[in-house]
Amino acid sequence: MTMALTERVILGSIAFAIFWILAVFPAVPFMPIGRTAGSLLGANLIVIFRVLTPDEAYAAIDLPILGLLFGTMVVSIYLERADMFKYLGKLLAWKSRGAKDLLCRICLVSAISSAFFTNDTSCVVLTEFVLKIARQQNLPPHPFLLALASSANIGSSATPIGNPQNLVIAILSKITFGRFLFGIFPAMFVGVVVNAVLLLCMYWNVLSVQKDVEKAEVELVLDEQVVSHRFAPATMSHVVNSLHSQDQFSGNEIIKDPNGVFDSSRNFNASREAANDHGSLQMRDKNVSLKTVDEREDQNFTSCEEKHNFSEIWRRLLWKICVYLVTIGMLISLLMGLNMSWTAITAALALVVLDFKDAKECLEKVSYSLLIFFCGMFITVDGFNRTGIPSAFWDFMEPYAKIDHAGGVAVLAVVILVLSNLASNVPTVLLLGVRVGASAGAISEASEKKAWLILAWVSTVAGNLSLLGSAANLIVCEQARRAQPSGYNLSFWTHLKFGVPSTIIVIAIGLILIGD
To answer: Between 368-386 and 63-81, two packed helices, what is the crossing angle to 10 degrees?
Structure first.
């Protein structure tokens, strides 16, 4: 029996509302089941309420997006094993010329790494490096943490593999990797520069504080003392002292003959000493020969060990080079316009084969909860689309959001900005993407491409508005808070004070630079 339209709207809206609450606020007191379970619950309710049939629900799951997401996660895991992010962390501190130089480096490295290895991955592996460097230079961490998170979001907008919403846009719009990159790259580059300038202006006085040299020297001395104590070899002092005292006693001892018969025993003592000397010579020769054999064995063992270590070093280096070459090959293939999902999966499998061992350890690091979250979200959002509410909303906004004039672009950007912070960026893309593209496609093909790129740009940079705006922000906050030995709590208001002006200015500048 076909469900009545009113019932479909009400029940579909309830299911989507439950999904939205649990996705935006995963620690809801009355149902603390988390985002992933909340996504599955919303999808299940869509089917139970018969907004979608089971077959329609399965059809709503976008396998190319899941394949691309899975492939990029596996590649990122192998890059982390190949010390790619470790080298990026070292690059931050290499010949640094002060706090301002460090902040600019963080912005640049974070943006570039996020564009090719996803913003979440970059934030996970770079937060600890950034916090450690800030502590070493006796600087407040929050400007650098803000630089890391905000630049990661801006940088990830440049490529389809930079963040999940771009994956969705690339698949739905069928825009090639190269066109996507060259369309948004100018906006991304200028956006990162503007974001860095805003950080410098806002925290200029904080970054101008010089490190206390005397305190640094004391800390250095203490560190050296700790290291020297930590690596000092353990000695059995009581045994050494007793042996030393025995040597001193035997060296100073005077043999006395109470009966005065010293001459009569001289010959006996001389013969005994001669025998002892002969025996000691034999023992010495034997010890020398044994020592020579031991030295030869030690040399052979050391030589074998050095050869083994040398071969291991070269094998490790060769494997790293292969990982980097496969990654470069994947990026080149994407730029050539090959299928993005299968390109990423092929690169992931190539790395698994090159590793030449059980891939269980690496595959266990894949965020399967994120993949499941996407499955539930696809079903829930598709069901909510069937209610007609998103279409009605867009029909109301469409006349004011035409991208053939500046006012329409501004209205569209505001709508995306607000929805991305209310409903999260990926659901916003799923709800508005096809409608925005179709509306712009009625103007021209170039306008359709531009509309998709605007959606990618605004929905991504909108994550910088508040601490809850993107997963990258939350990752930086949590990683910094849990860092040992001294964590740092990046507060909501500290982020908001910088996030609001930065987001508005960067989005506005980017809208001017996004190409047709």
So the answer is: 160
Instruction: Answer for the pair 172, 433: CB distance below 8 angstroms, yes or no.
Output: yes
CB contact set of 218 (below 8 Å; sequence gap of 6+): none
CA dist., res. 254 & res. 443, Å (int): 115
Q: Is the dihedral of CA 364, 348, 183, 103 positive or negative?
A: positive
CB count, 10 Å around CB of 83? 14
Give the per-residue SS3 of 307-326: HHHHHHHHHHHHHHHHHHHH
56/22: higher pLDDT: 56
Q: Calculate ∠ Cα 171-39-469, nearest 5°.
A: 70
Mean pLDDT of the chain: 79
CB distance 160 to 167 below 8 Å:
yes
Q: What is the DSSP string of 12-58?
A: HHHHHHHHHHHHH-TT-TT---HHHHHHHHHHHHHHHTTSS-HHHHH
Instruction: Give the Cα-Cα-Cα angle 485, 128, 105 (nearest 5 degrees).
Output: 135
Residue-level pLDDT at 226:
30
Run of H or E including 488: none
Q: Which tens digit of pLDDT belongs to each residue from 205-242?
A: 888 765 443 343 333 333 333 333 332 333 333 333 33
Distance (Å, rounded) from C-alpha 187 to C-alpha 253?
91
Whether the CB-CB separation of 409 and 454 falls below 8 Å is answered with yes
Mean pLDDT of 91-113: 84
Name the one residue in this structure whose structure tokens are 């689309």.
Answer: 385
- For 442-477, the pLDDT digits (tens) are 888 889 999 999 999 999 999 999 887 887 887 888
Q: Is the peptide bond before 485 cis (omega within 30 degrees of 0)?
A: yes
Alpha helices in 209-265 (DSSP H): 213-230, 237-252
Alpha carbons 334 and 342: distance in angstroms, whole number:
10
The burial of 215, by beta-carbon neighbours within 10 Å (0-12 exposed, 13-18 middle, 19 or more buried), is given as exposed
CA distance 385 to 433: 12
Give alpha helix (H) positions in 49-161.
54-60, 63-81, 84-93, 99-117, 119-136, 142-156
1-15: burial string, b at 16+ Cβ within 10 Å, e else: eeeeeeebbebbeeb
121 Cβ neighbours under 8 A, 6+ residues apart: 73, 76, 80, 85, 113, 114
In degrees and rounded to multiples of 5, residue 258 shows phi and psi of -65, -25
SS3 assignment, position 114: helix
The distance in angstroms from the start CA to the end CA of the chain is 47
- The residues near 175 (Cβ < 8 Å, ≥ 6 apart) are 160, 169, 183, 449, 452, 453
Distance CA 406, CA 410 (A): 6
